[in-house]
Design brief:
Radius of gyration: 26 Å
Order of helices and strands: EHEEEEEEEEEEEEEEEEEEEEEEEEEEE
Strand content: over 45%
CATH topology of the largest domain: Immunoglobulin-like
Number of helices: 1
CATH architecture of the largest domain: Sandwich
Number of domains: 3
CATH class of the largest domain: Mainly Beta
Helix content: under 10%
Structural class: mainly beta
CATH superfamily of the largest domain: Cupredoxins -  blue copper proteins
Length: about 280
Amino acid sequence: MKTRALLFAALVALLVGPTTARAETLGVNIVDFAFTPPGITVLTGDTVGWRNSSFATQHTVTGSGFESGPIIPGGGFFHDFTAPGTYNYMCSIHQYMTGAVAVSDLLLNAPAKEVARGAPTVLTGRAVASVKSLTIEADTGTGFKPVGTGQASGGTFKANVRPPGSGLYRAAVGADASPPVQIQVTDRSQVIASVSRRSLRALVAPPNPGGKVSLQFKLRERFGWWTVARSRLDRNSRASFRIRLRKRVPARVVLTQSDGWTPLAMSTVVRVGPAVR
């Protein structure tokens, strides 16, 4: 492993050059008498940089295989982590200051928002160069089980899953697995309908690409709501219906189960048809 301790700002320019296209540099602040954050997870090959943001106190970053020596306020220290494992460290001057770096060959990103149960969902992450294919596993309460597969290229991967429920998810290659991340899965969906001159557009959230939606009109001659068209949501979870009417009628869009009939969610009622003059 290669270590180097110089002024933090001077080293940043060297570490973001073309030789680190896949590897990333992640930062830890030393503020007063604490490492912030105290724990960090990185991909094998990544660099961690510590910056001493204390006003007037020197600190060290001391771990198994790396030693910064005293870091002056405003100074920094960098270390490359080239093997998986958990690396505990401390400040040798103030030994109650501790931190840890977890290093893994696979890292799975958690979606920023809830995802729809059973909906086609793309999960992303990072992987070392030797990884070409992987499995996504989920633990929704009964242990980890495969729920999808993915392909890696250039240090990143995408995997297609249909999340069965909320729980812990991880990427796995053989016996190796990424640190698990929490994914929230919901049965609640929102359908947003908007009307233009000759069409009605629908957006479903959380995204549910491939989901079935129905356009319904409220018709007196049918004594209530009547399905007049069906469609599937595109990859952006959107659908569009052409409108050809001689009179204005109430309309709504209904998200259904795969049978095309059982409703899961519906939009607010909008009026479609010729403009009122």
